[in-house]
Amino acid sequence: MRRPAGSMSITGDRPSMPRRPLHRRTFLKGVAATAALPALARPALAQPVSTLRYVPQSNLVSLDPVWTGATVTTNHAYYVYDTLFAFDRNFQIKPQMAEGYEVTADGLAWRIRLREGLKFHDNTPVRSIDCAVSIERWAKRDPFGQLMAKVVEKYETPDDRTLVIRLTRPFPLMLNALAKPDTSGLFIMPERVARTDAFKAITDTTGSGPYRFLKEDWVEGSRLAYAKFDDYVPRPEAPEWGSGGKVAHFRRIEWHIIGDASTVAAAMKRNEIDWWAQPLPDLYASLAQDGMQLQIDQPAGRLAMLRMNTLQAPFDNPAVRRAVLMAIKQEDFLRGYVGDDNNMLKECLSLFPCGTPLADETAGKTLMRGDMVEAKRLLAASGYKGEKAVVLTASDLPVVNAFAQVAFAVLKELGMNVDLVASDWGTLVQRRASRETVEKGGWSIFTTAGPAVSYADPAISPLVRGQGDAGWFGWWKNAAVEEKVQAYLYASTEAEQKRLAVEINAIALQEVATVPLGQYFVKTAFTKRITGVLEGISPYPWNVRAA
After folding, report:
1. Least buried of 108, 238, 297, 303, by fewest C-beta within 10 Å?
2. For residue 84, how many other CB atoms are within 10 A of its CB?
3. Pairing of strands 515-520, 302-308
4. Is 461's pLDDT higher than 80?
5. DSSP letter at 41?
6. Are 294 and 287 in contact (CB under 8 A)?
7. Dihedral angle computed from the Cα positions of residues 401, 405, 406 and 407, in that order, rounded to the nearest 10 degrees
8. Using alpha carbons only, how large is the chain's radius of gyration in Å?
9. Does residue 450 surpass a pLDDT of 80?
10. Average per-residue pLDDT in the chain?
11. How far is CA 310 from CA 477, 480, 505, 511, in A?
């Protein structure tokens, strides 16, 4: 029986990896601040039991999960919005806002019925037209949504609780698209908000999720807050990942944007901060000694990646990109952030993460040998003329900073003309949207990471898509890959899906659509004052409560 793309089996194993000497690790000195800064102001951080205080992995700049795929924006979106469907921990798709659905025998119409009692934060009911317009806007930006949109004939809303999606041909992965997890997930917004141009960020944050965003409390770069939405009606099932009952136990949740790791650790010890999304690995032991609880947040881990701008020199030349690919040693990148714990990292020379059904390292073993001598030979033969390459880094996001510092060192050793430009993550996110040359504020390389499950097949992963201008930052274009992705969507067997995925992965690596930097695992830390922190692809706010 054919396995839907979203019904994958994910292994959480973290096999040990043999050590080999590292040659480029001096770049990481200073990533983790060790000098104690002044304590956080006590009046601002006094801890009423009704308030949860949380430190996210980075600053929140954009509030629109359609406009940007930044992980921190997706995490924000899970507070404020809800989804029609969601995956549980076994990657089974469950109704969320939906009460249920029906599909016609010919596969050309999907009828989705909404649950009773759904409301937006302005106390207006959630209607089928809100869902239809939200899907349309999301599908203009999301790679999976774009595939779905090609076969949508029209949306019908016969009543306020019924949405009908009519298709020009069957689309077997409809639920996989509507339940898509993590970056650029389908979050339902009011019609008036969802009619915003998909290429412009929204300013109205009205949603129907378990928490309301308190825009008046937002101090950009410092603090933001959410209040429990009393009229939210949770599902009756137990929560699993993004599915089930989203019960809000705290009246208020505050995000504190704190860039210095030692300050956060000290604040947790004083019970001034309850939950830290991503403490530095170097601090795990000391946090445990101080009585903090630590757990791996995502059993499948995260995929680290490097993305090049294929529109501008020097990386508009595939031969130059291949030279960089040949020079990459994944272990240097992974250990640069994770350190010496072999159980927290995994080399993987595939753009479909290892531990997922479509992973294949055949092409990667040829193209990513970590051979600097061969890489220099390839660069010399590429026609590279010394054009400047700009590597972007985020000084307030240690994992991105670690990877970017390694990338900078690799390009320097390779013999390229390279600059490292540091900013905060929010500025990086804005700059990577620029398609200008580096002389006009553009960029050449950025590094990032995301949940491994978000890149597990061609339908959901932007890393292998050859969409050009319509694709992810870097704008790699390849018509052959897009044809194979279409074929993958309608493949009749798992074997055919696998064959196509292997071919897509090989082309994407040969053309260097994205450079996989391996996989790593992260622990989240919280005090014993709270309990109920769930595993999943996001630090979900529901189910968390005072211990």
Report:
1. 238
2. 21
3. antiparallel
4. yes
5. P
6. yes
7. 100
8. 23
9. yes
10. 90
11. 8, 17, 18, 10
Q: What is the secondary structure of 507-533 as a DSSP string?
A: HHHHTTS-EEEEEE--EEEE-TTEE-P
pLDDT at 41 over 70: no
Q: What is the mean pLDDT of residues 64-78?
A: 91
Output the CA torsion 446→452→458→464 (10° steps). Answer: 20
Distance set, CA 142 to CA 57, 462, 525 (Å): 23, 8, 31
Residue 224 pLDDT more than 90?
yes
CB 72 within 8 A of CB 60: yes
Amino acid found at 23: H
Mean pLDDT of 388-406: 95
For range 45-69, the mean pLDDT: 83
Closest CA to 445 of 334, 304, 314: 314
- Strand, helix or coil for residue 54: strand
Q: Which stretches of 64-188 are assigned E, i.e. beta strand?
A: 85-87, 93-95, 98-103, 109-114, 152-159, 162-167
Alpha-carbon span 353 to 519, nearest angstrom: 8
Q: How confident is the model at residue 49 (pLDDT cuts 50, 70, 90)?
A: low
SS3 letters for 74-99? Answer: HHHHHHHCCCCEEECCCCCEEECCEE
Which percentage of the chain shows pLDDT scores above 70? Answer: 91
Q: What is the pLDDT of residue 426?
A: 85
Beta bridge partners of 223: 219, 256
H helices then E strands: how many in the chain?
A: 15, 21
Residue 25 confidence (pLDDT) above 80: no
DSSP-based three-state secondary structure for 119:
strand
Q: Is residue 218 helix, strand or coil?
A: coil
pLDDT at 115 over 90: yes
Q: Which of 484, 487, 482, 454 is nearest to 466 (CA)?
A: 482
Rounded CA-CA distance 115/126 in Å is 9
What lies within 8 Å, CB to CB, of 441 at 6+ separation is 431, 434
Q: How many CA atoms lie within 13 A of 46 on its CB side?
A: 2
Token pair belonging to 185: 């997930």
| Strands 109-114, 293-296: pairing kind | unpaired
Tell me the pLDDT tens digit for each residue of 508-524: 999 999 999 999 999 99
Looking at the chain, the whole-number percentage of residues with pLDDT higher than 90 is: 78
Task: Determine the Cα angle at 521 with ends 4 and 472, to 5°.
Answer: 55
Ramachandran assignment for 91, one of left (phi > 0), alpha (psi -120 to 50 degrees), beta (any other): left
Cα dihedral: 485, 302, 213, 446 (round 10):
-80
Q: Could you tell me the CA-to-CA distances from 106 to 147, 149, 169, 247 in Å, in that order?
A: 19, 18, 9, 38
pLDDT of 20 above 90: no
Q: Which residue from 111, 32, 121 is spatially nearest to 399, judged by alpha carbons?
A: 32
